[in-house]
Automatic annotation (TrEMBL):
GO terms for molecular function: ATP binding; ATP hydrolysis activity; transmembrane transporter activity. This is ABC transporter ATP-binding protein. Residues 6-247 form the ABC transporter domain. It comes from Rheinheimera riviphila. Residues 228-250 are annotated as: Disordered.
């Protein structure tokens, strides 16, 4: 039986103001297993960014349970969430998010340098160079990001995401800033990583790339649908009840 990496049950996210409540996610149930490649697509405003933020512990849910490798993480403090995020989750962003003042080597090494336990220098160097080799960029280790093309920068971003051996790789529109040739190359690389055992969850607007995943899900109005449009989850946020004394007579 494959190891369960991610388990969400009844996840909701509500943004409240004095005037109104916005229900961004409505009872999300989602399980991701070791070796999965899951794509999530849907129209703007459907909740994709919110779901990705919760998966990556960049935000906390309003309700429900979220477990990473069996550990409940839905109620962590900000500092504890940051530690778990650094150790368990790798991010690949549309905008690369590399630091121009650092070399390629130092950009890739960043997640290891923020670990709670110091990574020995020799191990750090070996892991960084191994990840650069995976994306065929060892020859650029001493360069800075602004000396690289967009496609090369995305490869460096992939190496940085992999260096911590994350339980899950979260991929946010990885081809959004690339031309079709470089976009295809990056997607081929992600598929190869998945074939070699990396667990991925990707948000994308591009149906061509969504179809490359082994599991394709749709998000609509804060709910996950299967490929045929059937709701995947049974959990839903209960409708609020109005106390009898507050009900308005017709």
């Amino acid at each position: 039986m494959r190891e369960q990496k991610i388990n969400m049950q009844g996840i909701t996210k509500v943004y409240a103001t004095d005037e109104m409540e916005t229900h961004a996610l409505r009872g999300i149930d989602l399980a991701i297993y070791a070796g999965d490649f899951v794509s999530i697509c849907g129209p703007s405003g459907c909740g994709k960014s919110t779901l990705l933020s919760l998966l990556g512990l960049l935000d906390m849910p309003s309700g429900g349970s979220y477990q990473i490798e069996g550990k409940e993480v839905s109620g962590l403090s900000l500092s504890e969430a940051a530690y778990i995020r650094n150790e368990k989750i790798g991010f690949i962003f549309q905008s690369f998010n590399l630091i121009d003042e650092l070399t390629v080597f130092d950009n890739v090494a960043l997640p290891l340098r923020y670990r709670r336990q110091t990574v020995p220098k020799a191990e750090l160097e070996a892991r960084v160079m191994a990840c650069l080799k995976t994306v065929d960029m060892t020859h650029r280790a001493g360069h800075r990001p602004n000396q690289l093309s967009g496609g090369q920068q995305q490869r460096i971003a992939i190496a940085r995401a992999l260096v911590g051996s994350p339980a899950l790789l979260l991929v946010d529109e990885p081809t959004g800033n690339l031309d079709s040739r470089n976009g295809d190359a990056v997607m081929d690389m992600l598929c190869e990583l998945n074939n070699n055992g990396t667990t991925l969850c990707m948000v994308t607007h591009d149906p061509r790339y969504a179809d490359m995943a082994s599991r394709k899900l749709h998000l609509l109005d804060g709910r996950i649908l299967d490929a045929d449009g059937t709701p995947l989850q049974q959990t839903s946020r209960p409708e609020p009840t109005i106390p009898p004394l507050l009900q308005v007579a017709p």
